[in-house]
Structures are given as structure tokens and as C-alpha cells.
Amino acid sequence: MRPDTPAENVDHSAEAARLERTAARYPEDAEALLLQAAAHLELAGDRPAASALYDRLLSSPDTLETPHLVRALKASNLWEYGHEAEARAIIDGVRTASPRDPAPWVIVAESLEAHDELEAAQETFTEGVTLLLTDVPEPPYSTHPLLFGRHRVRRMLGASHDEWDTLADTLHSAHASPSSSASSSSPSSSPVSLDELHDPKRVWSLGSDNPAELEAEISRLRAELGAFREALSRPFPVAVLHWPEGELAELVGAYESLAVEYPSHEEHLATIEGSLRELAASGTQNLGIVTGTVPSYEAFAASEGASPGDVDLLPQYATTLAARGRAVVWPPQRGASCWCGSGRAYGECHGAQGV
């Protein structure tokens, strides 16, 4: 599917079939590709087929990179076509497992929210936020939906603001800008607060006969749409390329022209951490790391008709890996192992760099 293909013109069943064929050709990317295929099947209304794909992935959980994410997606899908009891059981299992990835928390909480289980949704959002963000000075980009979702549900419940809601407000305000919605001359050019966006009374405005109320709601919806567009404009992380020590030695041994780019493995790792910190300091969000292998890189170079020794090919390779779902979020969650593969906690390894 072309990126610019309008959603209404997509044949979701055909796209799912194409992704399944691609997964068979590239088994190392099968998990990400089959998850995309399942999403297309859900959009096509073929929820049983989507569940079959989730089951196919879960049949070998030891090889999955994100087993909790797959389970969460399966639960959400099952509930949508009448399998509530099974969906609830899976959701309970995901919550008990306490995954360190925010995505499963968001999916199961939003599934509960969609079925008017607001108290349970609020509890689930809170569990995820508490686990992943306690004592974290700057919430990673991937955790923002947790905070925003929790804020939304608590607003619907009429709960008073707490420190997590205040943090959600702050993050939303920091990202809101005139350019993210409409032109500066538009009424929607001033940022709309998260409290306004999540106001339960907004739905009443849509049925109002008062032109002023309708205009105000249209302005808020434009601002919200701008935020969605901004998020969708970066569907995968801005990723930096990482080579494990053995792979880097093989790469530089085969392509001597890359020795200037990679003087040593230690310097390579330090450069990755430094580059990511500079990007973060400049305001860039949704950062990640992709790990390369020599065979994969050589195959990519061949597909581009380029030489693997071309330094300019490296960032293209990194972007392609990120687009194929191979990126891991940087910085790692609190207590997680360092991205470099040392086995040490990030805070005691490259997370201590420059501290």
C-alpha cells in the first residue's frame, strides 16, 4: 500500500494477504508484518481471521519480541466480536504480567474504556503509568498515550486532577502549537488544553443548535485532529543504527571504507548514546535504536543497487529497519537492560554517560 493511498480506497483484505506473503519471505520481520496484516483484517471486518493471525504468532511465544502486545491486541479484537469472557481473561493476564512496554497497557485499557468499563480502564492506565513512570524525570514519547488515556478516562469519571494528570497537561501543552493544527489566522491556532479536549460535555455540543457552541467545538476538533496528524506523521521512531561488536568487526573487515565511520566498537556505542541525547535535547521525540546485521545490510544494499561500503547508505538502512518495526525505544524504561547488550541496567551502563 502506498503511504498516500486514501484510507477509503484501501482493500484491507488484499493488503493483509500481501503482508502475509511478505512475512513468509522475510521471517525475521514476520512478527511486525503479521501484526499489520491482522490490523487490516480487523479493518476489513474479518475479526476471526485476525484472531487466527494472533494465535499463529502466539503459538511460538518464545520467539516473539512483544508477546504481551500480541495478547493485548488479541483481547481487544475478541471483545469486538462477542468473546468478552476470553478477552477479559487475557486482559487480566496482561495486567498481571506487568509488561515494561507501554503499548499493551494502552490497548487493554482502551479496550475496557470502549466497553464502558471506565473504572477498570482508569485502574489499568494507572497501573501502567505507575510501573513505567515512577521516578522517571522525562516520560519517553511512547508513554505519552498512557498519560493522555488516563487523563481522558479520569475526566469522564469526574475525578480530581492528580500529579499524573498535571504531567499529562504539561506534555500536551508543550507539544501544542499553531502549526500543528491550522493556519495562524484560524480560530484553532491557539492550543486547546487537554481538559477541554477530554471534556465529556463536548459531545453535547455536537447536538446543539447554537452556532457559537458548534463553532467552538469545530475549533477544538481541528486542534485535536492536528495533534493526531502530528503523531501519525512519524509512524516509526527516529532511529540510530547500532552494530553488535561481532557484526561491526565483520562489517569493517569486509568494507574497509567504513572504518572511518566506525573507528572502534566502544566509540561506536558512545556515539550512539551521544547522538540520541543531542536529538532529545533539541526537542526530537520518539527516538529509537535499530540493530543491524551484515547479511541484512548487504541485502539492503543490493536492493538499492548500491555498494555496502557507501557510508551514505547507513542512515537509509537504519530508517528502513525502523519502518519495518525493528526499532527499540530509547531511552529504555526504568530498570531495563542497556540497549548495547551488555546485560547491565541502562542506568548503570550507557545511561550513566554524561551524568
Question: Would you write up a description of this structure?
Answer:
The protein is mainly α. 57% of the residues lie in helices and 3% in strands. The chain has 16 helices and three strands. Strands 1-2-3 form a three-stranded mixed beta sheet, with helices on both faces. Helix 3 runs antiparallel to helix 4 (67-80). The radius of gyration is 22 Å and the shape is globular.
What attributes characterize this protein structure?
355 residues; 3-stranded mixed β-sheet; 16 helices; 57% helix; disordered N terminus
Neighbour order of strands in the largest sheet: 1-2-3
Secondary structure category: mainly alpha
Strand content: under 5%
Radius of gyration of CA atoms, rounded to a whole number = 22 Å
Report the helical percentage: 55-70%
Overall mean pLDDT stands at 83
Which parts are unreliable, with pLDDT below 50 for 5 consecutive residues or more? 1-6, 177-190
End-to-end distance: 45 Å
Bulk shape: globular
The total of beta strands comes to 3
